[in-house]
Design a protein that fits this description.
The chain starts with 5 loop residues before the first helix and ends in a 6-residue tail after the last helix. It has nine helices and no strands. Helix 5 packs across helix 6, helix 5 packs antiparallel against helix 8 and helix 7 packs parallel to helix 9.
Amino acid sequence: MSGFPPELRDSLILFLLLVGFLQLYYLSCLTFPILGIYYPYGFIAHMSFYAAEFIVLFLYVKLVKKSSFSGLGFRRSGKWRKSCALGFVFAIFHNAIGLAFSIFILGVRHGFYLPLYVHVPVYFVAYLLISISEEGIFRGCILGGLLKRYGVGASIVASSLLFGLYHFSYPYLLDWPSGTITITIHMFYSFTVGLFLAYFYCKTGGDLFGPVSYHFSQCFFNVPSLWMGATLGILAQSQISQFLFQFGSTLVHSSLNMIQILVIRSIRLNG
């Protein structure tokens, strides 16, 4: 990759490294049945991946870029408080509409596997780790690097495509065709999330507090559904109805991401 521009080279290396770690986690889940039971061993393995992701971020910033987290975008200057508040408001707006659609239209049952006194502190730390790691890498390192060489639009789309592909999970391909459809829909949704977070990052002049606030709030101030084992209501018993559920849910959430971009365009955040 010596002929690649350094910004593109670093972005691809970071992306491939994270995807490799993630697929290794999925392989471990298939190899060791004990990890298939999410609590506690599967959860520990899952969080170990994100801990490794944070270590990659830390080493890249300190050893490769010889910079600091403040230089990456975690700097408390300008309107960082407004960015954090806006990220929180957008997340609550998104979750409220998404949950209402999921519960009242799709008939999905939501709930918590862990008692709340365990769930709240455990997932507060977990989602904070995930948000800082993913935003630091995809918005701070990858998007921030691409912006130094390419235009804003191209950089936003490219980093968002990588963010969508990052959510690929090869075990889903083993369940053809429903698994393939599921992971494809999920990657598309992640791409639209990436578009919003990348635009948010650019709108704030490279500040990461806003994207981290949104990412954390959308995960933490939510009620777990499918991926944590909630059961589907009457509307999603067959494969066809499950596909319609996934498609409808993704359409709503992706549309909300686009609406959020339109709203944030009208808000002055930088300067």
